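seq as requested:
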Amino acid sequence: MIKDLLKKVYLRIRKILLFPILLLRRVKISEKGEIKKILFLRHDRIGDMVLSTPALRALKEGIPQARLSVLVSSINRDILLGNPFVDEIIVYEKGLLKVIKMIRELRRKSFDLVIDPFLTYELWSAFLAFLTGRYRIGFEMNGREIFFNLKAPEGEGEKTILDRILELIEALGLKAQDTLPSIYLSEKERSEAWDALKRKGVTEGDLLVGIHPGGYYESQRWSAESFARVGDKIISEYGFRANLRANVIIFGGESDKPPLEIMKKAMRHPPIVMDAMRLRSFIAVLSHCHLLICNNSGPLHIATALRIPTVSIMGPTVPYLWWPAGKNHIVLRKDVECSPCNRAVCKEHRCMDSITVEEVMEAAVRLQIARIELQIERRRV
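struct tokens:
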């Protein structure tokens, strides 16, 4: 509590001290036609990139003559592969010498407009925008705005991350026609993913339910044992019906090995295990699923971009920030008195532990599985 209070005081003082500098830097873009090169900063996590895709589309459609470049991380770059609205992907590499080299290369490109969509008190991405762009825009918060010279919103209020990023784009006089995230897969990628599923024993007409037990922070993860019980219920309740077979696919990356191992040992009915996959391969396999059950993490937002229905478990996360976009999504969360604390680690974990297997199954059945079964049966007729 004391640490949080001191942080708020520091940020408030910083903003007050830096504000006079801001008054000297305000400009306006006279004509959109003068914007020939745009740089969008998104060198962070997977979910943030997914939620930025509507903004990228709005930029390209609103300023079609401009070349749109995106500064990405090595983790989230594959989200943009095949995206028709992005002209160039630039990977942010860590390390002092690599960063210096990157800044030099970005400055040589002479960007007319740099967009910083980060909602943070840290100054680095704002300073990077200052170093690399003629016009610069980002959220006016915590004094970061001194590095920008275009008027922008403060990034406050009970809005999702996606809506806040679009609000930033609207400050440029642009309007998004499509506000849902999008990921673009090739037919080859989808075909190779289906072949991989067939090698695991999946056949046409099977019900495919994905489960991803991972999460960026420990506090965001529902227990692997609970996910295992959900997986068993899906297989046992739907796997032995006449003319219908259910397959549970458990996904996970390198950092998800512990919960995956727990799930594999705990499940009485063997699941299909898809681990250690490259991001594009995971996305392609997920695109064949009828439902994803997961925590509030990157895979949830990938599923929304693929229009895959989801049931997600949310713990200490601020709910309105990371709510999934679109329809056919159920979020399970508990309003305990300490939530949302937004902590990375929690000893009590009541907000997550109080969510039951029965609640998850009820959500899956109510919103997804019954409808999915009907669709599968119709395809067979």
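The first strand starts at residue 37 and ends at 42.
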